[in-house]
């Protein structure tokens, strides 16, 4: 059945939209989200942590790019969504899936939360929602994540989600003027803790 489903399942479990958690809503990007992208890109540390530092762009450039993103057809397995806080009704981050391999049954993901909105459980809940969707609805077997070896916060975050360290890519990325090792982490569908609390 498409769309939001209400009511109760056997055992008294309330059924609501998969994309809505206790503190965040994952939704498609809107043209009005351009200010989020501009704000994120202007913080060099944030930009570097998820992609790379780029020269400043105009507000019009951000508007046009966000309009194009908002108008893209929905891909059911490789997508980018806004993370919106339910309390403030504002865009606080983004989450995406990529590197999908249907034959092998695995995918990758990335999440970014504004510095001003971190340590509130938003990332944990957003990632949990996406994992539920990819494992329970799309029948994937494994999620793979790559984290800089020096990023202890992110490594601990993935550990709380149940990810297991699977390997090390030596001097695999270039970050802030130096070659960096990257830790490869994996989570199997059977290891995913559905509906986990904030972390």
From TrEMBL:
Keywords: Transferase. Residues 24-190 form the N-acetyltransferase domain. It comes from the Bacteria. The keyword Transferase applies. This is N-acetyltransferase. One of its GO terms (cellular component) is cytoplasm. GO terms for molecular function: protein N-terminal-serine acetyltransferase activity; protein-N-terminal-alanine acetyltransferase activity. The keyword DNA-binding does not apply. InterPro entries: Acyl_CoA_acyltransferase, GNAT_dom, Ribosomal_N-acetyltransferase.
